[in-house]
Write a structure and sequence with these properties.
Length: 486
C-alpha cells in the first residue's frame, strides 16, 4: 500500500472517530435544545430520551453507534504508530473525544444527580448526609420551598437514592460538597461542572498511565475506550476518582519511591470505595522488599496504622456514631446485575440462597487473601509485575464474585493495574468493559428493572468467556504461524 493511501486511511480514522462520537452525542444535544435544562431528567434508560421512537429502534441505533465507536477505537490502536507522530497528538485527540462526551447525558444511570443532591444538602443546608436523607430534609417543616429555587436539590430529591443516606466514603462526599457548593443551586451548571471535572480527571488518569507504563498503547487503550467515555464522562461515575487515586498511589510507589504518598492516595481511594484496601499489603511489602520478613511485618503494622489514620480523618467531618456506615451496608445488601440475581431468580432453596453463596465465597476469598499476604511477607524476591497481577486477580474476584450490587462501571477498577498484567489480560480487560456497554442494551430495550439483571449478567459473562477463548485461539494461531515461519 502506497504512503498516500496510508495517509488517507489515517486521516479517515482521525476524522470519523470524532464524527461517530458527535453522532453518539446527538440525542443528548437534541434533548438540551428542546428542554433547555436537565431539570426533571430521569433515569430514562432510553438512548433517544423523549423522542417518539420505539425502544427497539432506539436500541438498534445505540448498538450501531457503539459498534462504530468500538471499530474506530480498535483501528486507532492498531494504526497508532502511523496516525500519531508523538504523545502530544495522542493527548490532544483523547481530549477532543472526551470533550464531545461532555454533551452526552447520563442515559444509563442517574447517580450523578444523587451525588449533587447530597453535596448540596451538605454545602448549602448544613445537613449531615450520613444521618439525614434528602427526602427527610425536604419533607421537614417548610423545606419543600427550597425545591423551587434550588434545582440541584430538586433533581436529587426525585432520584431513586433520595431516601438513602450516603453510600460512599467521606472523601467522595467532600468532593460532592465542593462541586455542588459552587453550582449556585443550578442543576445545569452543576452537571456541566461535574462533567468538566471528570474530563480533567480522565486526562490526568491518561497522563499517569503513560508516566507509569511509558507506553503509548496503554494510554490509548484506556483514554479512547468507549466504555470509559460513557461511564466516566457521560454518566459521571465516581469510579474515575478511585482510578485517579490508585494511579497516583502507584505513581508514587514506582516513580517517586515514596510510600507515604502511596499510602495517602490509597487511603483516599478507600475513602470513596473500600475495595482499594486490597492493595495495601502489596504496596507496603513491595516497598520494603529488600528487608527481612520480620522487619517487613513491623513495617506493615507501622504503615497500616498510618493508612487507618489517613482513612479516618475525612470521617471526622461527619461521624457521630456507627450509623455513618449504614449507607454503605444498605448498598451492599441490594441485588443488581450479578450472579446473585440469577441465583435469586432460579434457585430458591435455602442452601442455594444468594446470602449463603455470598458468605461462602467471602470466607474463601478472605482465607486465600490472608495466605497470599503471608506468602508475600516471607517471599525472598518480590517483583512488582507479579504482585500487581495477583492484586488485580483479587480485585477481579471481589468485583465479580463478592459484590451483590454489581454495576458495569465497577469494571473501571481493573484499569489502574492493567499495565502489569499478561498480554491476554491486557486485551481482555478493555474488551470486557466494552462487552458490558453492549450488554446495557438489554435495559435500553426492556427498561430498568432488577430482573433485566439476569440477561445482562448472562451477556456479560458469556461474552467475556467467549472473548477470552477467541483471544487464546488467536494467540495459538500466531504462535503456530511463527513456528512454521521459522
Amino acid at each position: 500500500m502506497t504512503d498516500k493511501k496510508q495517509n488517507q486511511i489515517n486521516v479517515f480514522i482521525k476524522v470519523l472517530f470524532p464524527v461517530i462520537a458527535i453522532l453518539f452525542a446527538m440525542p443528548s444535544i437534541i434533548y438540551w435544545m428542546q428542554n433547555k435544562t436537565v431539570l426533571n431528567f430521569g433515569p430514562y434508560f432510553q438512548f433517544l430520551y423523549e423522542m417518539p421512537i420505539s425502544r427497539a429502534t432506539q436500541t438498534i441505533l445505540y448498538l450501531f453507534l457503539l459498534a462504530g465507536l468500538v471499530g474506530f477505537y480498535w483501528l486507532t490502536i492498531k494504526r497508532r504508530k502511523e496516525i500519531f507522530q508523538n504523545t502530544k497528538k495522542i493527548f490532544f485527540f483523547i481530549a477532543i473525544i472526551a470533550i464531545i462526551f461532555i454533551a452526552v447525558l447520563p442515559f444509563t444511570c442517574s447517580d450523578v444527580f444523587y451525588y449533587l443532591g447530597i453535596g448540596r444538602l451538605d454545602s448549602n443546608y448544613q445537613q449531615n448526609p450520613y444521618y439525614v436523607t434528602m427526602k427527610e430534609f425536604v419533607e421537614q417543616g417548610e423545606n419543600k420551598q427550597y425545591l423551587e429555587t434550588d434545582t440541584v436539590l430538586a433533581q436529587g430529591y426525585h432520584n431513586d437514592w433520595a431516601n438513602t443516606t450516603v453510600v460512599y466514603g467521606p472523601v467522595w462526599t467532600l468532593i460532592c460538597k465542593l462541586v455542588a457548593g459552587v453550582s449556585l443551586g443550578n442543576i445545569d451548571m452543576a452537571l456541566l461542572l461535574f462533567k468538566i471535572v471528570n474530563v480533567f480527571i480522565h486526562l490526568i488518569n491518561c497522563y499517569l498511565i503513560y508516566k507509569i507504563s511509558h507506553k503509548k498503547i496503554f494510554l490509548l487503550i484506556y483514554g479512547l475506550n468507549p466504555f470509559v467515555l460513557i461511564e466516566g464522562i457521560a454518566c459521571v461515575h465516581n469510579d474515575m476518582f478511585v482510578v485517579l487515586f490508585i494511579l497516583l498511589a502507584m505513581y508514587f510507589l514506582t516513580q517517586k519511591k515514596n510510600l507515604i504518598g502511596t499510602i495517602t492516595f490509597l487511603a483516599l481511594a478507600t475513602g470513596i470505595k473500600y475495595f482499594a484496601v486490597i492493595l495495601l499489603p502489596f504496596v507496603i511489602l513491595y516497598h520494603f522488599r529488600e528487608e527481612k520478613p520480620w522487619k517487613r511485618l513491623g513495617r506493615c503494622m507501622q504503615y497500616g496504622v498510618a493508612f487507618i489514620i489517613i482513612l479516618i480523618l475525612p470521617y471526622l467531618f461527619y461521624i457521630k456514631d456507627w450509623q455513618v456506615l449504614s449507607g454503605i451496608l444498605v448498598q451492599q445488601e441490594k441485588l443488581a446485575k450479578s450472579i446473585y440475581i440469577i441465583l435469586t431468580e432460579y434457585f430458591r432453596e435455602p442452601f442455594l440462597s444468594a446470602s449463603t453463596i455470598n458468605h461462602l465465597l467471602l470466607g474463601i476469598f478472605t482465607i486465600v487473601y490472608f495466605f497470599a499476604c503471608i506468602v508475600l511477607l516471607n517471599k525472598k524476591e518480590i517483583r512488582l509485575r507479579e504482585e500487581m497481577k495477583k492484586a488485580n486477580y483479587f480485585i477481579m474476584a471481589f468485583l465479580f464474585l463478592l459484590i451483590t450490587n454489581f454495576q458495569p462501571w465497577y469494571i473501571l477498577w481493573l484499569f489502574p493495574l492493567y499495565m502489569w498484567q499478561k498480554a491476554e489480560m491486557i486485551k481482555w480487560i478493555p474488551q470486557i468493559a466494552i462487552i458490558s456497554a453492549f450488554a446495557n442494551s438489554i435495559f435500553l430495550l426492556n427498561g430498568e428493572g432488577w430482573k433485566n439483571g439476569t440477561p445482562f449478567t448472562f451477556v456479560l459473562w458469556v461474552g467475556s468467556l467467549g472473548m477470552w477463548i477467541i483471544n487464546d485461539k488467536i494467540k495459538k494461531l500466531k504462535r503456530k504461524k511463527k513456528t512454521l515461519g521459522n
